[in-house]
């Protein structure tokens, strides 16, 4: 009698939480910024005025340049390399340009929630994010059925399981967020709140937790997002 065939253990699936960076994480950034800014004013009148100024009752469509077939092929190859490294628990470094990211936002099914609602630019180690994002996930009734339609410019890094943002400017509905409110004290509080919120959300979505456990570092350097995976 022939011995029974040896069963091959399938490789672990690639975490689908990659889309979190494109949609969920960016929306979370916006929610924390909006809440922080409008609440700093204090009084109810100021809060209501801040919500009306900086949020809208409908989304806008963000115009995007269509990626060429070559650009899309290159962007998908980089994403596949990232997925492969995560699947195989291997260390590698992959650099994404703004064109790569925008091509993926527009064409990858995983990022369909951000299609025509997010556009990324990267220059001088600063991200410029044009975004139309719903604020329904905020645990505050005044932001239900409200949208952030605007631009945020920020530095970004993810090191030692912690996100760090350095918001340089923010604009929504044609109104500029006061620069004085984006100082060191606010950014420290912002980063604490963001990391706490992200961990709570990740605890409810195992795929996202698995993904970020495999990322050792992600930083914006010059005109690229540089992602390094972790060997486990």
Question: Could you explain the architecture of this structure?
Answer:
- There is one protein chain.
- The protein has 232 residues and is α+β, with helices and mostly antiparallel strands.
- Helices cover 39% and strands 25% of the residues.
- The protein has helices at residues 18-22, 24-40, 44-54, 69-87, 98-107, 184-204, 206-213; strands at 93-97, 118-123, 126-134, 147-159, 162-172, 175-176, 215-221, 224-229.
- Strands 1, 2, 3, 4, 5, 6, 7 and 8 form an 8-stranded antiparallel β-sheet that branches.
- Helix 6 (184-204) packs across helix 7 (206-213).
- It is globular and about 50 Å long.
- It starts with 17 loop residues before the first helix and ends with a strand.
- Residues 1-17 and 38-46 have low confidence and may be disordered.
Task: Specify the number of helices.
Answer: 7
C-alpha Rg, in Å?
19 Å
Characterize the overall form: globular
- Name the beta content range: 25-35%
Helix content: 25-40%
Unreliably modeled segments: 1-17, 38-46
**Largest pleated sheet:** 8 strands, antiparallel
Compute the separation of the termini in Å: 40 Å
SSE topology string: HHHHEHEEEEEHHEE
- Let me know the average pLDDT: 79
| Structure summary, number of beta strands | 8
Structural class: alpha+beta
In short:
The chain is an alpha+beta fold.
What distinguishing features does this structure have?
single chain, alpha+beta, eight-stranded antiparallel sheet, 8 strands, 232 residues
């Amino acid at each position: 009698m022939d011995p029974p065939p040896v069963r091959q253990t399938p490789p672990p699936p690639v975490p689908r939480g990659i889309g979190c960076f494109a949609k969920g994480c960016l929306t979370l950034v916006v929610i924390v910024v909006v809440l922080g800014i409008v609440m700093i004013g204090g009084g109810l009148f100021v809060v209501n005025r801040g919500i009306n100024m900086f949020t809208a009752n409908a989304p806008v469509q963000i115009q995007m340049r269509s990626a060429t077939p070559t650009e899309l092929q290159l962007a998908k190859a980089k994403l596949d390399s990232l997925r492969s490294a995560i699947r195989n628990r291997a260390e590698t470094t992959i650099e994404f340009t703004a064109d790569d990211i925008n091509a993926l936002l527009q064409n990858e099914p995983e990022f369909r929630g951000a299609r025509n609602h997010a556009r990324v630019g990267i220059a001088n180690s600063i991200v410029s994010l044009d975004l139309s994002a719903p604020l329904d996930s905020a645990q505050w009734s005044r932001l239900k059925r409200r949208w952030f339609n605007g631009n945020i410019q920020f530095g970004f890094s993810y090191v030692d399981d912690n996100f760090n943002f350095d918001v340089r400017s923010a604009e929504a509905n044609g109104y500029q967020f006061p620069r004085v409110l984006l100082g060191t004290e606010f950014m420290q509080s912002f980063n604490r709140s963001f990391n706490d919120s992200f961990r709570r959300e990740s605890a409810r979505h195992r795929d996202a937790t698995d993904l970020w456990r495999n990322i050792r570092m992600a930083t914006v350097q010059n005109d690229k997002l540089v992602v390094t995976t972790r060997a486990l």
